[in-house]
Write a structure and sequence with these properties.
The protein has 21 helices and 13 strands. With 622 residues, the chain is of the alpha+beta class. The chain folds into four domains: 66 residues, no CATH class; 144 residues, no CATH class; 190 residues; 133 residues, P-loop containing nucleotide triphosphate hydrolases (Rossmann fold), CATH 3.40.50.300.
Length: 622
């Protein structure tokens, strides 16, 4: 649907040609899902064709040029540090570097050159060897270059496994060649291992000889220091002197402690003796005085007098009686005498205790002086013994270290010699030797069939999309947008996709189903169309069909209903003389009409027919 408008200068984006813009829009508006649905059976058929192509290619290659690929599996071992003992959990970086080095060595020039120079290759190489014979001479350089290009050596990820493989069309011949590569590599590895351990053995033997000489020198120096003494007698004397010194120190400590205690007690007694109130006697001292005969006699006399007084009191003699008074006087006299005796004896015994403490302190002091002299003498003796012992101990320590180091080096040397005889010394172990394969690795039916399918599907898909990209027919609104100088006002969906509108109502969908999808689509087209026509001053809209049976008549009828519904006086002029349909949509006859007006047989007022929609009239074709 276009409007007749004054010609305008086409607007294009700066720096972007119009044709480029159209092609880019076309490429970006290809509906992939729609294309796949459209050609689904073609793609399925191409898939089956691909299966046939894959099977046929498999059979042809299997007959013409099969590839047999024997392989050898190696395991990289951890470093062998002792005979029969492998260090597990070794440094992962070191292990990885060693494995990568072996991968490079397996296909190195050294190995390849030895293989192609092996005289056994002519006898066991078969057709592979003959393929490099030119002019009756084996081309070793070409064979080496072929091996460099075709031998495959790889470290399987996350493992210590190395895989070596070689592919060719003859299974027996290529298996023998791979065996030569494996043997040559192992021989070269053994040579490198021996060359690496040789300098280590020489260095260890030299160090062992030097340690033996050092041991002899230290042993002579030790005997020179000791002279006639023996280590055991020196140790015994040192132990005896130490024991005696400990005894003296213990005794001296005890005497000094006792002296301090005695002096402390003496100072206490002297302070009490010189105090104004007199000394305070201990219970033991008082008890000892009470046991004195003099005190006991006085106590007995006082007890006898008290017995007489009690007898007189029992006889009724009063306190004023002469006999009672005499007795009381005697008791008081003896009691006073007893107190004097006690005080005298206590002072005498207290003075004796002080004299005893003085004698004890003097004795302890004399003993302490003797023990101090013994202590000094023993210390000097121990110092002399210690100096000699330190010298001997230092020499003994040096001798032990020399012997220990020598033993370690001898063990290392023995371990090196033992390791050299182990099968794991080279750190490479053959897990699986080459065997003659019973079937080729290529072609593989499980690879050829998917490859054929992918090839055919890819080719078919490319052709389909190329055809769609080159197809210039209009198939949707995006295709209209690619036409230069053309504006898309809206689009109407296919009637079969609108479930709310019956097929017999499509011609008048706007009037019959005003709330349907089709009616809403024509409303969306109507607004910009009328706005553009008003701005340009247009009164007439011409609707043209891109191809027969494209639904142009239905568009005209519904667009006219929508325009009239907007309050515009609308006249439908049916100019389709070959297939007129507008009169049928509105239940009118086809005459009079446009042809009659053009022929002068009728007028517009007589031919135009009013419809059931306000503001809408129809001019049949006539």
């Amino acid at each position: 649907m276009t409007t007749a408008s004054p010609p305008r200068t086409p607007q294009t984006l700066p720096g972007r040609p119009l044709a480029q813009s159209a092609n880019a829009s076309q490429a970006s508006n290809v509906d992939v899902v729609k294309i796949l649905k459209k050609y689904v059976w073609v793609l399925i058929a191409s898939g089956f064709i691909g299966i046939g192509v894959g099977v046929a290619a498999h059979l042809i290659l299997k007959k013409v040029y099969p590839i047999y690929k024997p392989q050898v599996i190696f395991q990289v071992l951890a470093p062998t540090m002792e005979a029969g003992k492998v260090v597990f959990g070794a440094d992962e970086d070191e292990q990885s570097r060693f494995a990568a080095t072996q991968v490079a060595l397996m296909k190195s020039d050294q190995v390849i050159e030895r293989v192609v120079s092996d005289p056994r290759l002519q006898q066991n190489g078969g057709d592979w060897y003959k393929s490099f014979v030119s002019g009756g001479k084996f081309q070793a350089d070409d064979a080496a270059e072929w091996l460099q290009d075709h031998i495959n050596v790889r470290l399987i990820p996350n493992t210590d496994i190395i895989e070596m493989s070689l592919g060719w069309k003859k299974a027996n011949d290529i298996t023998n060649v791979l065996g030569f590569v494996k043997e040559t590599y192992l021989i070269l590895l053994a040579e490198r291992t021996r060359n690496q351990t040789g300098p280590q053995r020489d260095a260890l033997e030299k160090q062992i000889t030097q340690a033996t000489n050092n041991y002899k020198d230290k042993q002579s120096l030790r005997e020179q220091i000791l002279g006639t003494d023996r280590v055991d007698s020196l140790e015994q004397r040192f132990a005896a002197a130490s024991y005696e010194l400990n005894t003296v120190l213990g005794t001296l400590h005890g005497i000094r402690t006792s002296t301090e205690a005695a002096m402390t007690q003496l100072s206490i007694y002297e302070a009490e003796l010189n105090s104004a109130g007199g000394p305070t006697y201990s219970d033991e001292l008082i008890a000892a005085v009470e046991m004195e005969p003099l005190i006991q006699n006085s106590l007995q006399t006082i007890a006898s007098l008290e017995a007489q007084r009690a007898a007189m009191q029992h006889q009724g003699i009063g306190p004023d009686h002469r006999a009672m008074m005499t007795t009381e006087s005697m008791i008081a006299s003896w009691t006073s005498k007893l107190d004097q005796q006690r005080e005298t004896l206590l002072r005498k015994r207290f003075a004796a205790v002080i004299d005893s403490l003085n004698n004890t302190i003097a004795t302890f002091t004399a003993q302490a002086v003797d023990l101090s002299n013994q202590e000094e003498e023993l210390i000097n003796r121990l110092i002399d013994l210690s100096k000699t012992q330190v010298k001997v101990d230092d020499i003994d320590t040096e001798i032990e270290n020399i012997l220990r180091t020598k033993a370690d080096m001898e063990a290392d040397l023995q371990s090196l010699k033992s390791i050299a005889t182990l099968s794991t010394a080279q750190r490479i172990m053959v897990l699986q030797s080459q065997t003659i394969p019973d079937k080729p690795v290529l072609p593989d039916i499980f690879m050829m069939v998917p490859a054929g399918i992918v090839l055919c599907l890819g080719l078919t898909t490319s052709i389909v999309f190329l055809r769609e990209l080159l197809d210039q027919r209009v198939k949707g609104p995006s295709d209209i947008a690619m036409i230069p100088h053309t504006r898309v006002l809206g689009f109407v969906p296919d009637a079969c996709e609108c479930s709310d509108t019956a097929q017999d109502q499509v011609q008048r969908a706007f009037a019959r189903v005003p709330k349907g999808v089709l009616a809403e689509s024509f409303r969306q087209i109507r607004s910009p169309l009328l706005k553009h026509a008003d701005l340009a001053g247009h009164k007439t809209i011409m609707v043209m069909a891109g191809m027969p049976n494209s639904g142009t008549s239905c568009v005209v009828a519904n667009l006219a209903d929508a325009t009239a519904g907007a309050g515009k006086k609308t006249l439908i002029i049916d100019a389709n003389f070959r297939r007129p349909t507008q009169h049928k949509f509105f239940d009118f006859g086809d005459t009079p009409g446009l042809a009659d007006i053009l022929a002068g047989a009728s007028t517009l007022g007589a031919a135009a027919l009013a419809t059931d929609s306000p503001n809408l009239s129809v001019l049949p074709v006539g």
